Amino acid sequence: MTPMKYRLLKWYVTLAVLLAPLVALAAKEDEETALLEGRLEGWPINARLSSGGSTALTWLFVSFLGIIAIASLFKNAKRTHLD
Length: 83
Fold this sequence. Notes:
By secondary structure, this protein is mostly helical. The protein has a domain at 1-30. It is built from 3 helices and no strands.
């Protein structure tokens, strides 16, 4: 990589790192629109989804993936491709 390209790349990365908080603040939603959803637009009443959801399905999925990862640790390292 030429020195000029390296210098430009360094400036682009620095600019992206410095502007990241500004982009996050600009995209921040307020409380009023946070619970509104596209599926609920156009209803004659003020419909909202409840914010009190459960994370049980996420924990089950993470547990399942953890079991798969741990089970792969107990595979025989000396097995052949014929297994």
